[in-house]
Structure formats: C-alpha cells, structure tokens
Amino acid sequence: MTSTDVAPIAEPSRGGFFGADLRFLGLTALGLAIFPFALHLIGGYGGLATQILIVSIATIGFNVLLGYAGILSYGQAMFYGGGGYLAAILLIHAMPNHPNLWLAVLGATLMTTVLAIVVGAVSVRLYGIYFALLTLAFAQMVFFIVEQARDWTGGDDGLQSFPTPLLPIGPWNVDLQTPLPSLALGPFGNLGDLKLWYVFAAVVLVLVLWFVRSLTRSQFGEVLDAIRENEERSVFVGFNAAAYRLAAFAISGALTGFSGALKALYDGTVSVDSVGIERSGSFVIYAVVGGVQTLFGPLVGTAIIMYLENVLSGVISYWQLVEGVIFVLAVVFLPNGIVGTILKRRRARTMLVNAVRVK
Amino acid sequence: MELLIQALLNGLVRGLIYVAIAVGLTIVFGTLRLVNFAHGAFYAIGAYVGLVVAQHFGLVPAFVAAPIAVALFAIALDRLVLRYFYDKGPTLQILITFGIALVVEETIRLIFGGTTQQYPMPPGLAQAATTVGPITYPTYQLLFAVGVIVMLLLVWWFIRGTTYGLVVRAGVRDRIMVQLLGGNVQLASTIVFALGAAIAGLVGAAASPIYSLDPDMGFNFLVPSFVVVVVGGLGSFWGAVLGGLLIGELQAITTLVFPPAADVVIYVCMALILLLRPQGLLGESEVIRQS
C-alpha cells in the first residue's frame, strides 16, 4: 500500500447527524432507567446501582488511556482517591455553611486534572512497564501525602461526616439523598429504594458517555488510534504523539477525579483505600473484563465485577479468587472483553489508522 | 553509630531479597522479553511450600523443596499460559501476569487464611546472635546474607560461564541465528525462566523466618523489586544487584530517620531515575522503547 497518497487527516467519522446522537442518548438513558430494577431482580440493592454508575465513570476514564491511547496506567487511584479527598476537603474547609455539590465536585475535578497534567507531562514519554511503574510511583507518593497530612485528610481514619452537599438547580437546592416516590414493582423492587442520587448519576453518566463517544469519533480520537497502532509513523506524518497522550492522560485524570469526588460525596466518607494500589488495580480489572476500546465495556465490566463482589462476598469468603480467575480468563479468552466480543466487529479502521499500520 | 550499622545490616538483608527477586525478573526479561508481574507469586509460593515442609521435616528440606516446587510451577505456567504472550507486547503481559499473581495470592489466602504465619525455627537458631565489636546481629540473618550472595555468584557463573548461559545470551541478540547454529534457545529460555523462579522460591523460603508470611507478601516484595529493576536497568544483572542494595539501604536509612517515609522513598528514587536516566543506572538505552 502506498501511504503517500493518503491525506494525513482522513475523512472525519464524526458523530454523524444530530439524530444519531439523539438516538444514542435516548437508548442509553432507557438502559440506565431499567438497570437498577434488573439489578434488583438478581439480588443487587438500590445503592449498588448508583455506586456502579459513579465508579464506572472512572473506568471509562481509564479506558480512554488503555483502550484508546494504548497505555497502561497503574496509578489511577491517585486521581480517584485524590478527587474524593479534594471534594471532601473543599466541603469541610471552603463551604462548611453552604455545601454546594457542583463547586465541590468540579473544584476537585479541576485539581485532579491539573495533577494529571503535571504527572502526565513527565510520564508520557515513557512506555509499557516504565509508564506503568512511573504512574504507580506517583500514586504511591499521593498515598503517602494523604496518609501523612492528617490535619487535612484524617490520616488512616479517612474523612467522615462532612457536610451533606446540596445540588443547586435553578432556584432549588436539591438534596440528592431524597428517596424517589414509593412505587412497588414486584420482583423489580421499589422505585422508592432509589434516591435522587441515582437519577443524578445516570444523567451525569449519559453525558460522560456522550462526551467520550464524541471524543473517540473526533479527529482527536482518530489520531489517538493512529498513535496507538504505530507511533513512529504517526510522528512521521506530523503528529506530536506525546502531546496527544498527555491530553488523553489529562482527560482520564479528569474523569477519574470526577468519579472519585462523586463517590466520596455519595458515600459520605472517603478512606485511604481509595488512593491505594489495589484501587488502581481494580480499574484495570473492570476495564479489561468489560472490554477496552469499547464505549460500554467499562460500564459493563464495572457492573459485573461490583455486582459479583457485592453478591459473592456475602456468600463465599474467596470471591477475590473468583474475581482473579475471571480476570485471567478474560485476558486469555476474551482479549476484547465482554462487550468487545459481543460486538465482534471492531470499529472500522479509518484511513489514518490504515496509513500507519504495519501490515 | 551502632544504630546506623544495625540499619545498614537490615538494609543489606532486605536489599538482598530485592536483588534475588529482581535478578529473576531481569534475566527473564532479558531472555524472554517477558514482563512478569507473577514473579512475586513465585516468592510467596516458595515461602508457603517452605512453611509446610518445615513444619513436617525441618528447615533444610524446606530450602530444598521450595525452589524445586516453584520451578515446576513456573515451567507449567510458562508452557500452559505465558508462552502465548511472549510476542504480545508488555501491556498484555503485565495484565496476564498481574491476573495470575492475583489468583495465586487469593489461593494462598483460601488455603492458609489471611493471618500472618511464623516459621517453625530451631530454638537455638532463632535466638542465636553474633557479636562483632559493639555490634550484635541475629546469626540467621548473617547466614542468609552470605547464602544469597553465594547463590547470586552461582547464577552469574551460570549465565556467563556455561554453554546454556551462552545460548541464552546469544538468543537475546539473534534467536534465529542461534537456532541455525544448533543452539536450543527454547530449552535454554525455559531453564532460565525456571531458574529465575527457583531463586525467588528459595529466597522466599529462606527469608520467611526473618519476615513473617502473609498472602500479600508476593506483591509486597514484587513492587519494590520492580523498582529495583528499573533503578538498576531492565535486563542488567549487575544493575539488579546495585539497585537492590541501593533500594534496601535507602529504605533502611529512611526507617531510621523518618519511618513513615520508608515506603514512599523508593518510589521517589525510581521516579528520579526514570526521569533523569530512564535506562537505569547500568541499563542499555535500547530496551526503553521496546518495553
């Protein structure tokens, strides 16, 4: 193939018509509306659905890195736990009297994004094991700071009982802990089991999915694909690979910090585990089981593993062994993950990716 | 002064464990191009096999059984799973070996429970201490250090002084040419993989009387050992030795000065090395891009 006659920027495969986006949003919203009731049918409780939605945002952020940029970060917990702690600290110290959920979450997200840019700026020139270990190193430094700065973080005890943040929407201050109206749905549970938090998390998740979908279909996503497939040629074509990877790392840090902040506010607590090495590993497991390089894979993987953890940990003491076995089987037999395998058809390669690929 | 020397001896013992694990990691990477996150699991399996054998037959049989059992496990793992991942690139290798390490850790937890365990030690050896001048130090630790050093020298001789080692080293440079010349690269590679695992298993069994056993021990020693490999230079034998001693001593001195920072200091050290000299202290720069 002659790559010279291929324009550097192939025909953009953008989101298509506004109608296509609308259909995507509608179907996703419908799925998320059914999800908690389906989950109840198989034994998950109402709060689990909300937690899955919130945590899956971090997995989606991780997938931007591993799936689309093709780099394995082993330090996502610094953003996840960092976002949680920052949101809690903002609530406690900056707005004890008027706890505002937007300000706390977006403030924390902004700060984790800055952290991601700083860490990314020194890390993205490394590859493979070096990148994984350097991100791990930074995460361990964040862990150390969190553990030592007891006045701010509570040290090993973590932070509890921070002010319940309210969500200002127009003239109302909404308390997301408010349960939905009671409505018995037989084996599907009760609408009243859910709090407003679920609605909020679902809306936020749909927006995040839409954002990542648009991102991966944009020219940015195309270049990221090309760099992942063959960095050397992409650089020859004229793209600054390090800058693109840094951008992916920053987006990933932002989404992960956002998720961690929401989770801390939903739980009302934040603990040192959230910045620990095992937390970083959990996003790897969620994403790989669900399917990297797919939009819904991270959500599916997070849901399956968190559901199993929730259901199995009460029944058998070795659910973590089950989790490990699932992970190994997924890597060996379903390298595209559950969603990737179901979809079978990989995303059509764009001309840019074809141009840089090695036959 | 005595405190400092005690700390340095502690650092030496811990550093030698890192060296032993890191040497396995680094020769496996050097020969098979495999980034093995399951290497810490070899260390843990060696410790627990050693524990069971020691409980029934005593220490010396434990130190014989542990490396053999771990080497057999490693060969099975390599033939059944890992060989399909040799050419899959580091990311997938990290994922699969991370998963295997998780499964091993949880299996140990299932069999032995999550609590820490102590080795049955002959009472004479458990309390024995050697005094040199003002310094008193447990005899077992000193024997351990000498044993590990002897073992490392034997490994070095194996790689540098035997035909197997020659085939392995040549195979890294040009696998096909070595095979054309009649060298069995596959066999040599398998031997190296089993050897690296056996070293980790033996040291796991031998170090466990010093540090207690728990299911997390594999990861707890693996991650610092990876730090050691990176600091020393991936693929470099003497880099692993230098890095291991450096990291062990750094941790020991930090423990003396500011204990809470003992864990984080090695990551700071690694981050600085990666940023200033990414190929590591004694590494070759060519490995960076490939991995």
Task: Report on the architecture of this protein.
The complex is a heterodimer of chains A (359) and B (291). The model of chain A is unreliable at 1-15 (pLDDT under 50). In chain A, strand 2 and strand 3 (172-174) form a beta hairpin. Chain A has helices at 18-41, 46-69, 77-94, 101-123, 128-148, 150-153, 196-217, 219-229, 231-237, 241-267, 277-290, 297-315, 319-333, 337-343, 351-356, and strands at residues 159-160, 167-169, 172-174, 269-270. A two-stranded antiparallel sheet of chain A has the order 1-4. Chain A has a two-stranded antiparallel ribbon with strand order 2-3. With 359 residues, chain A is mostly helical. Chain B is mostly helical. Chain B is built from 13 helices and two strands, in the order αααααββαααααααα. Chain B has helices at residues 2-32, 39-57, 59-80, 90-112, 123-127, 139-161, 163-173, 175-180, 185-207, 217-232, 237-257, 264-276, 287-290, and strands at residues 129-132, 135-138. In chain B, strands 1-2 form a two-stranded antiparallel ribbon. In chain B, strand 1 and strand 2 (135-138) form a beta hairpin.
